[in-house]
Amino acid sequence: MYASLFVPYAKLKSTSSLGNPASASCPLQISPPRVVVRLEGSFSANCTSLSDQIDGMGWESPYGGLDLTQGVTSLLFSIDSVPVWELEPMCYVNLHDGDQCVKLLPVTVYKMPDSVSLRQNSTTVKEGEQFAIQCDIVNVAPARNLSVLWHKGNKILNSETFDDSSPSPVSKSSVLTLTAHGDDDGAEIWCEAKLNLWPGEQGPAMMRSKSHSVTVLSEFSSLVIVFSFLEVFLCSSLYSDTFITFLISLYFFYCHNILCCDSPLSSRHGTTAGILIVLVFVLGMCSLLCLYITLETMARFRHTLMSIKLFTSHSLHFSLLLIVPVTQ
What we know:
Blueprint: E1 28-31, E2 35-38, E3 43-49, E4 54-60, E5 66-69, E6 74-79, E7 90-95, E8 100-104, E9 107-110, E10 115-119, E11 124-126, E12 130-140, E13 146-152, E14 155-161, E15 170-179, E16 188-195, E17 207-208, E18 212-213, E19 215-217, H1 219-238, H2 241-259, H3 267-301, H4 306-313, H5 315-327
Parallel strand pairs: 2-9, 11-19
Antiparallel strand pairs: 1-3, 3-6, 4-5, 4-7, 7-8, 10-12, 12-15, 13-14, 13-16, 16-17, 16-18
GO biological process, one term: cell-cell adhesion
Pfam families: ICAM_N
Keywords: Cell adhesion, Disulfide bond, Glycoprotein, Immunoglobulin domain, Membrane, Repeat, Signal, Transmembrane, Transmembrane helix
């Protein structure tokens, strides 16, 4: 398959360093000088001899190689689908004096990560304590060109690179350790994976993880949690279905039998009914306030209090359903 006139490196008399410009006696030029291609992607490169004192030229490669071609000073090398993670095609030229020189085309085969995600044991930490967040990058190549950037809000906290010579895909993790401060409360933290293979903003977009929100608890915050839970418990106890049902039943009894009938309305009955109306209204507002406090507590501290709050949030509606048939 390979050209019979290609001489191994050890026998070359005039050979440039791999990847460096050829010497004056071996004037080869490859365009582009390096290639970055994804696995199963395609590329092409042109090798040109700057001297016409040659017998022929060719490309040495296990994939897409070209035998010695005479009568040309330029030869195109192309691959429709790159099948391997390591590829080192070489352009070679045979000179009139019997010498041969080669030049290597550096090819980097890359793969973007399958996923970029964060892991954290707890999203709630106490002020002054250290906590760690891990960024997992799955199946990326080459890892030696991988950078992980850590963000908090609009600031870059840290960046990390990896010393890994494997050309094939690997999974990497980056751990960020922080000390919790009060101004970190509610801060959004995320990581990004970037392959440093292209100049500037060229190449595929960086892959980023979902954001994690951190809750920082001070001593005051801990008291807020305790009193919030206590208030939820008291609300559920004081304004239970039984108590509200009794009061609303009493209210409808007075309304139906005293206020809504043709019998004369005594001031005592009217005063009692008025007090009951105000009391039921206050209890209803307290129930709504308790529901709001509970939802805020659950949203902020992610505590499972829904089972407790269900008794309070629906008590008024459930009681009304029980009372309506009695008052008709």
